[in-house]
Specification:
This protein is α/β, with parallel strands linked by helices. The protein has twelve helices and 13 strands. α3 crosses α4.
Length: 299
């Protein structure tokens, strides 16, 4: 028996890709940590993608997640533990796997950026604990070789891209909006000066723009719409893809959305200074602190 630990919307999408392409053992048990726990951030993805979630830990924080997952792993005694990407849920899974001496597989490993943001710290930490590392790009493989990690390094498909391609077979692009926007990282949201600067650019957009507002943003401001800007709550994956595929420009700080936008041939304004998806740079503009570039793209 094996366990795969998930907890966020990007992980649900990767999980769909893994299951659809039979990349996991047939007896794998899917454990949801509850990191993204409400209908908008979690349940709608589980339902739309028909994911076989076995249990939800409803973790309050990482310490609580480690405690609850430890009890679960101790009870079912899996041979392997799979984790994905760079979020807190993946760290929880990695720590518990090591604690119980389980074979740890890190999916989407080896990706790197130059900034030590929480996600970068997480992925480097997990890569050093993993027995097996599945790399979605050649440069991810090279990163791990350069760092002399001890685990078995494997080239693997990019399961988020495979999921996108499968789901898009049943998506009709909606061209109502020229621009779609979603951002959520701490550097853009918890820095209130930075957040207000981004929002002011969005308020001044001269293109029909859809902004899917992450719940974290509403802890600081209450976004408003304008004649050219439509503000919405987080939406399901299928609805989001319909707007994403129909837009011309994508504004995001999400590595996953950047990857999807690249695959769909969109121009991308990345609200970061670096990206783990180096191959997307041909259509990506790294905004960093230069919001005048974003303003120009929305003109």
């Amino acid at each position: 028996m094996s366990v795969i630990v998930v907890g966020t919307r990007p992980q649900f999408i990767r999980l769909f890709g893994l299951l659809h392409h039979n990349a996991l053992p047939s007896d794998v048990v899917v454990v949801h940590t509850g990191q993204h726990y409400d209908h908008e951030m979690s349940r709608i993805f589980e339902t739309e993608l028909d994911l076989p979630i076995a249990t939800n830990l409803n973790m309050k924080n990482m310490a609580d997640g480690i405690f609850k997952l430890s009890k679960f792993v101790d009870k079912i005694n899996p041979e392997k533990v799979y984790v994905m990407g760079d979020c807190s849920s993946s760290c929880v899974g990695a720590i518990v796997a090591r604690t119980f001496d389980k074979y740890l597989i890190h999916i989407e490993s080896g990706l790197r950026i130059s900034e030590l943001i929480p996600e970068e710290i997480n992925r480097r930490f997990i890569d050093r604990l993993a027995d097996e590392l599945w790399c979605p790009t050649d440069y991810a493989v090279q990163n791990l070789k350069n760092e002399n990690v001890k685990g078995l390094i494997r080239n693997s498909p990019n399961y988020r891209v495979l999921a996108l391609r499968e789901v898009m077979k049943n998506i009709e692009p909606d061209t109502k909006y020229e621009v779609v926007c979603e951002f959520h990282r701490q550097s853009n949201v918890d820095d209130i000066v930075r957040l207000k600067s981004i929002v002011e650019v969005l308020y001044g957009t001269q293109k029909k723009t859809l902004w899917s507002v992450h719940p974290r943003i509403r802890n600081h401001i209450e976004p408003r719409g304008t004649n050219m800007l439509t503000v919405s709550k987080p939406m399901g994956y299928l609805e989001w893809l319909s707007y994403l595929s129909g837009a011309e420009v994508v504004v995001t700080d999400s590595g996953g959305i950047q990857l999807e936008a690249y695959e769909l041939g969109k121009m991308i304004a990345v609200l970061r200074s670096d990206t783990e998806w180096k191959h997307t740079m041909s259509t990506s503009f790294m905004i960093g602190d230069n919001l005048s570039v974003l303003k120009e793209m929305l003109s």
